[in-house]
Amino acid sequence: MYKFIPLFITAFLFNSCKKDDPRTVKIQFVQCKSFPSVDGNGNPWDAGDGPDTFLRITKNGSVLFQSDVYEDNNTGADIAEISPILTIEDNSKSISIEILDADGSTNQSMGFTTITLNSYTSDGLYEEYPYSIESSSSGYTFEISGLVWE
Questions:
Q1: How many domains does the chain have?
Q2: Does the global pTM surpass 0.90?
Q3: CATH (domain of 100)
């Protein structure tokens, strides 16, 4: 009987020292690292030049962040610093990151990705939560970085 008491105490102390899994994530930067030079129909984004790009982050259809137009006639990557830093209260919910082309009074969606933040973690230890997350599909590569898990 007494042989199991130290084992029980050791297991109890180990489990009580483990940090709770963070539920909140703060995001400092969002970037579209690459996008196709033409739209889905093979046409240029804007006639005669590149798209006028900006980035948007949404959750359940609500806009959480939208950058200014990053670059008129953009031919490369698009990055935006999020100020103030965006706080996602429940990291088990999906967010969408979208790159858009500003065309006067209308905005054309160029592409997007959906990320569930906590699916990029390993076993719930703070040291194993990433500083950045990258997601690619259909010629688009998005990255969020400056992540702080709380």
A1: 1
A2: no
A3: 2.60.40.1110
